[in-house]
Every structure is written in structure tokens, then in C-alpha cells.
């Protein structure tokens, strides 16, 4: 009789479910190249205050479109750090790109794919993934709220810890989206043009005033009456 998943498999399934929910919760209202730079710098700033960075751990960061255009990339840390960890190298970038490829292939975060495969007891070979793919947490799809067909970009970081890298990316994405929406709600409101009436001794002339612009003249009443007379013959 089936008695449930083993403890580790059950934990992987729960983590996969949570990761999938994060993808649905954190969708961008819009996303530009400037957003990619700001998001990447936010990742860098958040990592630099972590205990891992203080002990010498490094990080590589990339934000790129699904088509492969790099919008942001940087390294945090040095290979020759005094701690001797030397964990920032060309291999770090190779691992990062392998994680990004997983997102492009599946449309899901690399952490979700990792935990889902662990829960099912599957390997990358059994799932038909190329050898260069890296099933490791840290790459997250960038979805737009009004574009449910596919993600438009991927934000990723790699420091060697699947759980920590995924958490770092998700928290940064969450906070950035919150800030974007807050800025949109408190931004300057658009005002409609209001009519401005200028009185004269013999007739009235109406002008429309745009906020911040000079008044736009409207033909005077005599001109309007002449048009009416020419059409009606009265």
C-alpha cells in the first residue's frame, strides 16, 4: 500500500509548489532595458550585505531577453579573494547560462524545475535536457501581467547555493514589482484642459487652456455667424 512520498521527496514537492506560485504572483506591469539594469543593481546591492558575501562568496548576475539579448551582467566578488574560496570564474558564468537555458526551455524558474525533478525522481537526461543545462535554483522568468503566452526575459544569479540564489532573486523581483506599482499609483495625475473665457465689450471669445501651455484661440463668434449665414442664406 502506498504510504506517501519519502520525506525529502515530499519537501521537494512542497518547494516546487511554492516556486510555481511565486511565478504567478510576481509578474511585471511592464519591463524595459532600464528596468533590467535597476533590477540587476538591486540584486548586487542585496547580495553585498549578506553573510555569504562577507565570508568571501561571490556572485554572477545576468538579465537577458528570451531571445538571448543581454540587458545586464556583472560580477560581485573576486576570484583571488583572501578567503581562498575563489568561486567567481568563467565556470560561474557557464553555470549561470545553463540555468538561464533551463528557464528558456521550460518557461519556469530553474528552482521549480530542480525541485519538480527531484520530487519525481527524474534526471536531466530522462527529461531530455542537454548536458550543458544546469538545473540549479537562481534563474527566474520575467512575465508581463498582460502577456500570459510566455516570459519575455530571465533574471538569474549564481553563487553556488540553489536555495539561497533562488530566494535572493525572488525577493528582489518581489520588492522591485512592489516599488513599480507604488510609483505608478502615486505618480502625477493627468488633468483635462479647462475652458477659459475672455470677455470683451462687443463679443465673447473662448479660449482653451492646456496645463503648462499658451492659450489656444478659438474663432470668434462673428466668424461662426458668417459661416452659418453662408450655409443657410439667412
What does this structure look like?
By secondary structure, the chain is of the alpha+beta class. Helix content is 44%, strand content 16%. It has helices spanning 7-25, 33-48, 51-54, 90-106, 110-120, 162-186, 221-232, and strands at 59-65, 70-76, 139-142, 153-158, 194-199, 204-209, 216-217. The chain has a 4-stranded antiparallel beta sheet with strand order 2-1-4-3, with helices on both faces. The protein has a 3-stranded antiparallel beta sheet with strand order 5-6-7, with no helix packed on it. The model is unreliable at 1-5, 201-221 and 223-232 (pLDDT under 50).
Helix content class: 40-55%
Can you list the strand order of the major beta sheet? Answer: 2-1-4-3
In DSSP terms (H or I, runs of 4 or more residues), the helix count works out at 7
Largest sheet: 4 strands, antiparallel
Task: Name the overall outline.
Answer: globular
In total, the number of strands is 7
Short recap of the structure:
By secondary structure, this protein is α+β, with helices and mostly antiparallel strands. It is built from seven helices and seven strands, in the order H-H-H-E-E-H-H-E-E-H-E-E-E-H.
Topology diagram in text:
Layout (H helix, E strand, L loop, with lengths): L6 H19 L7 H16 L2 H4 L4 E7 L4 E7 L13 H17 L3 H11 L18 E4 L10 E6 L3 H25 L7 E6 L4 E6 L6 E2 L3 H12 L2
Antiparallel strand pairs: 1-2, 1-4, 3-4, 5-6, 6-7
Helix pairs in contact: 1-5, 2-6
Amino acid at each position: 500500500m502506498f504510504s506517501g512520498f519519502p520525506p525529502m521527496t515530499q519537501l521537494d514537492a512542497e518547494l516546487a509548489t511554492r516556486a510555481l506560485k511565486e511565478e504567478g504572483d510576481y509578474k511585471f506591469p511592464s519591463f524595459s532595458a532600464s528596468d533590467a539594469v535597476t533590477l540587476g543593481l538591486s540584486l548586487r546591492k542585496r547580495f553585498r550585505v549578506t553573510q555569504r558575501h562577507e565570508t568571501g562568496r561571490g556572485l554572477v548576475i545576468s538579465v537577458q531577453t528570451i531571445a538571448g539579448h543581454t540587458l545586464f551582467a556583472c560580477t560581485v566578488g573576486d576570484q583571488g579573494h583572501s578567503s581562498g574560496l575563489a568561486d567567481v570564474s568563467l565556470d560561474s558564468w557557464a553555470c549561470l547560462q545553463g540555468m538561464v537555458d533551463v528557464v528558456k526551455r521550460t518557461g519556469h524558474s530553474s528552482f521549480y524545475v530542480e525541485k519538480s525533478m527531484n520530487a519525481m525522481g527524474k534526471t536531466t537526461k530522462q527529461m531530455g535536457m542537454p548536458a550543458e543545462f544546469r538545473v540549479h535554483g537562481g534563474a527566474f522568468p520575467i512575465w508581463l501581467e498582460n502577456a500570459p503566452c510566455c516570459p519575455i526575459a530571465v533574471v538569474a544569479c549564481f553563487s553556488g547555493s540553489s536555495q539561497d540564489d533562488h530566494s535572493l532573486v525572488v525577493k528582489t523581483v518581489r520588492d522591485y514589482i512592489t516599488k513599480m506599482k507604488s510609483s505608478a499609483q502615486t505618480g502625477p495625475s493627468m488633468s483635462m484642459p479647462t475652458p477659459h473665457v475672455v470677455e470683451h465689450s462687443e463679443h465673447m471669445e473662448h479660449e482653451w487652456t492646456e496645463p503648462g501651455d499658451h492659450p489656444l484661440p478659438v474663432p470668434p463668434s462673428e466668424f461662426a455667424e458668417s459661416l452659418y449665414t453662408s450655409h443657410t442664406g439667412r
